[in-house]
Amino acid sequence: MKVYVSADMEGITGLVDAEDVQPPGRDYERSRVMMTEDVNAAIRGAYAAGATAVLVNDAHGPMRNLLPDLLDPRARLIKGRPKPMGMIEGLSAEYDAVLCIGFHARAGVLGVLSHSFMGHEIEDIWLDDRPTGEIGLLHAAAAAYGVPVALLTGDDAACDETKSWDPTVATVPVKFAKDRFAAQLVPVAEARQSIETSTTDALANLTTPPAESGPHRLTVRWQSASVALHLAAIPGVDRQDDRTVTVEGDMLQLYRLFNLFLRVCTAVTSNPPYC
């Protein structure tokens, strides 16, 4: 059994603030250890379930967060950016399951460090007219490969969002949102044990759906009208209004194209804020 791990940071055990998840935040270096140990718990659980290979993709921000010297040596790590497929770089139909470690709720939801991919730069995303964020897009892309998402860890808002998207996914809440930058934390040892045992259980009871096919529609509303204007130069991208673009296509093509959107947005919005 081959297992793929996408590791984000906002939903990691104990982390609640930008200072925890963004370099050079005062707690960022300690948070890298916390992130690595949550991922290690999932790796242990995967091997206890019979995994023969585990690939981990560092999927947060600079994508250089996980500490290779502390990562379980049985796993392989993809580190750094840019990556054509971003948070699912390296995933393919040869994998049997996806584990999402440290995820967060979409933009507009009252969850810990909630946002969609780029903080304030993305106001909303819709997939086939359904509001979505990183969780929904990853799930849809994995389904296009025919690979089930077996487990997700994060705050309770992220877990609820996952269940609304796919109730078969096992979830592990490692904290409970009190506000966007505050949470009631599950004790660290308890959270890691839960990640490990829940991973083993989820992989032991895996059901693999057929790969999904067919065209999808992706709509993104940006904070900046400038981003939508520049994206309209990409063939197939339709500018709905000053800040909203829509594109249709195969899900994996859309996921890769969306990652190109993010790079265009980064370039266009690189100037300091006007006020």
Task: Describe what you observe in this structure.
Zn(2+) 1 binds at residues 8, 10. The protein is α/β, with parallel strands linked by helices. It has a domain at 2-112 and 134-204: Dipeptide transport protein (Rossmann fold), CATH 3.40.50.10780. It contains seven helices and twelve strands. It has helices at residues 18-21, 28-48, 134-145, 156-165, 188-204, 225-231, 251-268; strands at 2-7, 53-58, 75-78, 97-103, 122-127, 130-132, 149-155, 170-179, 182-185, 215-222, 238-241, 244-250. The strands form two sheets. Strands 3-2-1-4-7-8-9 form a seven-stranded mixed β-sheet, with helices on both faces. A hairpin with a 2-residue loop joins strand 8 (170-179) and strand 9. Helix 2 runs parallel beside helix 5 and helix 6 crosses helix 7 (251-268).
Would you spell out the secondary-structure blueprint of this structure?
Layout: E1 2-7, H1 18-21, H2 28-48, E2 53-58, E3 75-78, E4 97-103, E5 122-127, E6 130-132, H3 134-145, E7 149-155, H4 156-165, E8 170-179, E9 182-185, H5 188-204, E10 215-222, H6 225-231, E11 238-241, E12 244-250, H7 251-268
Parallel strand pairs: 1-2, 1-4, 2-3, 4-7, 7-8
Antiparallel strand pairs: 5-6, 5-10, 8-9, 10-12, 11-12
Helix pairs in contact: 2-5, 6-7
What is the CATH C level class of the domain at 2-112 and 134-204, in words?
Answer: Alpha Beta
Q: What kind of oligomer do you see?
A: single chain
| CATH architectural label of the domain at 2-112 and 134-204 | 3-Layer(aba) Sandwich
Low-confidence spans: none
Helical stretch count?
A: 7
Mean pLDDT: 96
Secondary-structure element pattern, one letter each: EHHEEEEEHEHEEHEHEEH
What's the total number of strands? 12
Secondary structure category = alpha/beta
CATH topology description of the domain at 2-112 and 134-204:
Rossmann fold
Helix content: 25-40%
Q: What is the CATH H-level superfamily of the domain at 2-112 and 134-204?
A: Dipeptide transport protein
Shape: globular
